[in-house]
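Write out the 3D structure for:
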Amino acid sequence: RGDSTRIFEPFSPKNSRIIGTDNIGLPKRTQFIGTNDMEVKEVDYENGLTTTAKYVVLPEEDFGALIRRTTFTNIGLDSVTLSALDGLAKMEPSGGKLDWGLKNMGRTLEGWMGVYHADDTLSMPFYRMSTEPG
């Protein structure tokens, strides 16, 4: 914004409003839930940005998946140039008795996770654990 550079992380837990505390200057968040979609919206007046993330169910597939569309809207008076970085914070496979392991030896479990059958003959590789913890 202008000549300044800022690092901005929408939906960050450190910027969450907490009931009973001073919430002045913290972003306002709203959640909308529909039949096949869900949207979260954060209005950050301090940075002059509104961020919206909308999740929609991927229809007519043999597997469960969500599609996400993220939009940034400048609500400030000055023009803004954005650079965005997006990705999974952490990916965890489903199945098995993982609750204890994810809480107590998560980094070890990450070493056992991988993508299998990723070649040109398959259209969908599998992300799974190479072994089952005991």
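Residues 59 and 86 are 24 Å apart (CA to CA).
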